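Good morning,

Attaching, inline, the backbone tokens for the sequence recovery test we're adding to the shared suite. The designed sequence is right after.
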């Protein structure tokens, strides 16, 4: 069955982690920095974020509502909160993988392209403003808008349904083994990203059939 759609994840692929480590370690460091700067108790910002994290990850409210709840729990001034959130999004979005973005763009119009990403409230708008990801593809599925996240098989079914193609006609690139395994279980031709040259070579091999 010929490939008709090439679908990418975003984090760790189109966005790469800058020097300084994984976001999982950089977010705690951000909180420690800001707690020291503002004279807050250790762990205060992390605890405040954890109370609203699920709402943000599963899109249970609007982004503005989420921000208001988070800010109210922190007790930060508007100026401090805005600066903290700007740093939050800098970590979230990393740096653009220019080589892979150029390759992804060049696949059209020979192939249809799509994005399937685990995400957080505000991510679509932030990434579009900074990198233009959603404007470069036919379909962009952000998990927080669906209320379901990879590797849940439902999100792969949503992608295939909206694209209107059988799963076997989709190539999907992700950097987490569990997401790749789940996509393959759903019939999608999934590739595990380990480097940009490897990803391009593996995609091209599948496209050539």
């Amino acid at each position: 069955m010929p490939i008709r759609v090439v679908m990418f994840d975003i984090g760790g692929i189109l966005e790469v982690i800058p020097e300084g480590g994984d976001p999982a370690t950089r977010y705690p460091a951000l909180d420690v920095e800001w707690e020291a700067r503002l004279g807050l108790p250790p762990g205060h910002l992390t605890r405040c974020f954890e109370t609203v994290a699920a709402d943000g990850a599963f899109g249970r409210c609007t982004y503005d509502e989420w921000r208001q709840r988070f800010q109210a729990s922190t007790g930060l001034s508007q100026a401090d909160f805005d600066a903290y959130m700007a740093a939050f999004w800098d970590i979230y979005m990393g740096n653009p993988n220019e080589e892979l973005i150029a390759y992804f763009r060049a696949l059209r119009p020979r192939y249809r392209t799509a994005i399937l990403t685990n995400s957080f409230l505000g991510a679509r708008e932030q990434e579009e403003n900074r990198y233009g990801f959603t404007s470069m593809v036919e379909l962009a599925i952000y998990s927080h808008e669906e209320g379901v996240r990879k590797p849940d098989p439902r999100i792969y079914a949503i992608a295939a349904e909206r694209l209107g193609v059988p799963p076997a006609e989709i190539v999907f690139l992700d950097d987490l083994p569990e997401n790749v395994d789940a996509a393959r279980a759903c019939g999608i031709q999934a590739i595990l990203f380990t480097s940009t040259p490897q990803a391009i070579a593996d995609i091209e091999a599948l496209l050539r059939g």
